[in-house]
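Q: Two folds, back to back.
A: First:
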Amino acid sequence: MGGDAGKVPGSGKVPGRRDTGAVEPRFDAVIHEPTRLRICGLLSSVREMRFADIREALGLSDAMCSRHLTTLAGDGYIALTKRPGESTRHMVTWAAITPEGRRALAGHLAALQAIAQGAVL
């Protein structure tokens, strides 16, 4: 639809135009689901967080927390890693938001703000 006209291929930038750092509003149905939005919000403020801490902070069951984390990981918005726990008898799952997840969250929040101000996206 002409949105990429004039951009330098592969850079997403238009020659001669200053990059203002503004986030492009982009509604994201994956992030929009309330629990996943809350998870992304939690993870955006920390380097990483244990599964149990996410589950407790949001008051979720193990199954629901796992389901939402798996969905976000499947879309590349978070990274899940397993490491030995303090007792080394069991593995602990850690979640961290990815750079792609940060961009998607910022774009989604910008879209929500634009919608709240009357924009039709």
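A: Second:
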Amino acid sequence: MTKASTSGDPGNAPVAGEDGLKAGLKNRHLSMIAIGGVIGAGLFVGSGSGIAAAGPGILLSYALVGAMVVFVMRMLGEMAAANPTSGSFSAYADRALGRWAGFTIGWLYWFFWVVVLAVEATAGAAILEGWIPAVPQWAWALIVMVVLTATNLASVSSYGEFEFWFAGIKVVAIAAFIVIGGLAVFGVLPGSDNPGAGFDYLTSHGGFLPNGPGAILTGVLMVVFSFMGSEIVTLAAGESEDPQRAVRQATNSVIWRIAVFYLGSILVVVSLLPWDSKTITEKGSYVAALDSIGIPHAGQVMNVIVLTAVLSCLNSGLYTASRMAFSLGKRGDAPKAFAVVNKRGVPQAAILGSVVFGFVSVIFNYVWPDTVFKFLLNSSGAIALFVWLVICITQLKFRGIIKREMPERHFVKMWLFPYLTWATIGMITFVLGYMVYDGGDNREQVLLSTLLGLIVLAIGLVLDKRRKNAAKAAGQ
């Protein structure tokens, strides 16, 4: 069991935990990682298509997915508060369900994030090339990856400091958007070009559900993946000064974070503009809203914020992938080199191994975007939902482990256990089933992700059987 050492004086040098990782993340780092973790670039970039599909009813789509994430985070928080570790849900699945489960979900999660590295590096490079076209896009992608790799290699506190400021910019930007947009909605913003219609636009263009109730589910499929990243704080908690406190705060605050940043900002958008306004899909929902108010250079302002979100996702993705690889190495499910930390308490081999795959994925994105890279993208598409599903199933058994072995650490408890846990399992399963029913890219993502999952599971089962046979032979 991983237990990060704590320091009574935050000013002291980070102390190495039992696994060699240093508790270099301060409480302010963890707090901002928790807040910023739910704000991905998908919120800024992808919300426009969701609004176009579901109309104002997209608010219900966000609310449904938000509730699902709140429940999953509560379950994960229960386990992480009792046993903070860099392996998080993979380590808990290992212990509660079996080595095969921890192996499978750990490697799938690692794969998801290294593919995300390529997606975000390419997205960031496209924005930077638009500003400085003399530098080609591939060079910008390389520069971004190198800089953030160096940051993660330096120390965990460097990652924390970068993420603190990246997340801070996102939080301030959305808070300002909600305040300014909210004033404009009611026509009290000085100098606004938008007269303000209050909440009339929520029902005036075909009603609250102009495309019917079924569009809510379509909206769910379009917004669900923008929530991925909420669980990062539980991986980072193992390298913090006070893991239990950090997890409690992150778990307890997830409700208002989702309510404010997601529902609050989208409510402002659909209140400032009719849902069927072409500018929402052409410019993006936030840019269209800012343009309607008359904010100068709204597109460039939003590009800066999106770039910050992209860099934040890259930074956290590299950190998360490397810590999962480190945990797998510690448990004997990855090369032993991944479990070695250098004198700065950083798993150097795990970081480099993760970023190499990320670099290769970037190359695939430029050379074979419609074949190899599309396969990688689709085969990782449903992994977020698999992770949430495994967290739920693990928590059903891990509650008993906590009660038996560490009852004094049962600080966070899942509400209405086990009924709400089973309800969440049902919700996630339904979303996966609806993705298959919906067809197109959604079906392909579920089927390819399932195929990849079965391959990794088969490897995990074979390795698990070999270990048991070896242990049995050694005992004879």
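Q: And?
A: The two ends are 28 Å apart (CA to CA).
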